[in-house]
Amino acid sequence: MISTQEVPLAFDEAAPSYDAMVALNPGYHAHLATAAEALLEAAPAGRPLALVDLGCGSGASTRALVTAARDADRDVALTGVDASSGMLDEAHAKRWPTGVSFEHGLAQDLAARRSEFGLAGPVDGVLAAYLFRNVGPDERDAVLRDVHDLLAPDGVLVVQEYSVAQSRVADLVWSLVCWLVVIPLSWVTSRQTRLYRYLWRSVRAFDAVQTFVDRLYAAGFVDVEVSTAPGWQRGILHTFRARRAG
Fold it and tell me: How many CB atoms lie within 10 A of CB 149?
């Protein structure tokens, strides 16, 4: 059993094989692209954008934001933040355009360390993909408030996350996929299964969709929207988009 304090170490352990592992999920990068496009679509117009990829991992979500910004013809300064030094090593090893940087730290440290992360001023958008499961239930509201405070008026938060608490069918499908596909593949690719066994448990323990929507409103966000992924992940993978009021 992994505690929330041990999660960065589990990601460090899995980091060298992480990109290869997620590449075996045919929808993984497409879903990140959808989340990044949702953020760029709603971001304030008429100026260069300051964006944060909170829980950036090895940089897959960062790449999705870079691509979405390029496709939307928007200039961006983009900061990726992650608690796993191993995952950040993988991110740093990739080639990035000017304006992309990475910082090491917990999402829970955002308020206290924002100046250290180069985020003293407000930002226009925050993407948090597969992050909030890894934030303890008693800390999620505080992190959402910190993200809200970081955003400029009309700034946008997009959260992509697994949630199965609202559906027994979704819970069953998730468990079958994890134990018949994901965990065996993690053993084949790296001989490491700890992170992916934690993945299975953490998704099952995460907020129901409505619970997380309620958290967003309680943190001060408005115009909360939720969509789910197609295919086998329908009702399992969800994208939340919310806005700080102007």
Answer: 14
| Torsion angle in degrees (nearest 10) through CA of 226, 202, 198, 83 | 70
Structure-block tokens of residue 131: 């992050």
Rounded Cα distance, 105 and 113, in Å: 8
Q: Where are the domains of the chain?
A: 25-162+205-244
Determine the pLDDT at residue 73: 95
Predicted pLDDT at 92: 97
pLDDT tens by residue, 226-242:
999 999 999 999 999 99
pLDDT computed for residue 217 by the predictor? 98
As given in the structure block, the two tokens for residue 166 are 């609202």
* Calpha distance 108→112 (Å, rounded): 9
Residue with tokens 């995952």: 87
How far is 63 from 55, CA to CA, in rounded Å?
13
- Count of Cβ atoms closer than 10 Å to residue 145 Cβ: 17
Instruction: Measure CA of the first residue to CA of the last residue in the chain; give whole Å.
Output: 43
**Is-contact 91 57, C-beta < 8 A?**
yes
Helices (H) and strands (E) in the chain, counts: 10, 7
What's the CA gap between 92 and 94, in Å, rounded?
5
Of residues 233, 61, 201, the one with CA closest to residue 130? 61
Residue 29, helix vs strand vs coil: helix
Cross-strand bridge partners of residue 53: 80, 127
Token pair listed for 206: 């995460």
Please name every residue paired with 78 in a beta bridge, in sequence order, or none if there are none.
51, 100
Show the tokens assigned to 199.
């993945």
Instruction: Let me know if domain 25-162+205-244 sits in CATH 3.40.50.150.
Output: yes
Tokens for 95?
A: 């080639």
Tokens, residue 84: 């796993």
